[in-house]
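From the thread on structure requests for the teaching lab: each student submitted one protein with a one-line request. Submission from student K.M.:

"Model Fructose-bisphosphate aldolase from Populus trichocarpa, tokens only."
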Amino acid sequence: MACASFVKLNAASSSWTGQKSSFGKRSPGSSTRRVSFSIRASSYTDELVQTAKLIASPGRGILAIDESNATCGKRLASIGLDNTETNRQAYRQLLLTTPGLGEYISGAILFEETLYQSTTDGRKFVDCLRDENIVPGIKVDKGLVPLPGSNNESWCQGLDGLASRSAEYYKQGARFAKWRTVVSIPCGPSALAVKEAAWGLARYAAISQDNGLVPIVEPEILLDGDHPIDRTLEVAEKVWAEVFYYLAENNVVFEGILLKPSMVTPGAEHKEKASPDTIAKYTLTMLKRRVPPAVPGIMFLSGGQSEVQATLNLNAMNQSPNPWHVSFSYARALQNTVLKTWQGRPENVEAAQKSLLVRAKANSLAQLGRYSAEGESEEAKKGMFVKGYTY
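Reply posted by the TA:
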């Protein structure tokens, strides 16, 4: 059963084994040396791989509802609601209790508050997800702060205490984690900011795996700027090369991670917009150059695109086979129409849930390469770009 992936295998921390590997036998008179290396053997490895595969299952993707209380408050304010725990709970209950959601959604990223909440009739939100065969996840970073010595750039905090927090999240039912850091093209990006982003992601990933959580690795390249798509490709290749270097340095098991990259697009202020086919071509070029096929799933963020645009781009990337499961981890691109349909009114809950299923199904079809934008509403075609924040 799918719920088997939620069963804790062993609480012990990772161990190390001295397994040896030879890159060629030494012949008489040869100067070839035996090369050996250590292979990380975590008590959670099998479970991590199983969980990652479950999330990266055909036709499914991730619903991201891990907005901080402040960000969630902005969303509620857009429909005239106060930012209270009761209102946040009501909105997230609407999302997490949508009947049939598990047909299209394999994982849901929660904010810490939501992980510990229940429905108004007493069902834990994590149990609502499990009943739909959806894996509960948890945002574990502590947000962005200025990076001293950089070109007005940021770094992501939250490594202090992460191991103990992750262990508690596991006990509460979480089985994967998310850590978002950002890279700004107009700010350089500086070598310091890229290295800090990559190192922080790698340390987080290693700590998460050590505590039974599949890490989503997310160095978001912000849309800000008027640069062409070739510049985005150049920066993305640099960032992901650095990320995978440090993931390997930290002995992260690639089969037990998921990625959450930005799509390779022109800057939001660039005069020329790119077609879905162009975005797919550039994005897949970057991925094939930088991402090992051992990684099971690539779950794109929507990057401030409209609901329809994000889905069209994903569909274009799935027109031919990929080495990885290429899917979605969308927040606003799944929720925008839902919020506007709900308006905070109990009588609108069912209609709002149906609108969520419409968007989830559209992206499910895009993951399978079968999506058509025919019949999409004008509301779903509206862009959602916010400077400095493309999540």
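TA comment: The longest helix spans residues 229-249. The longest strand covers residues 176-183.
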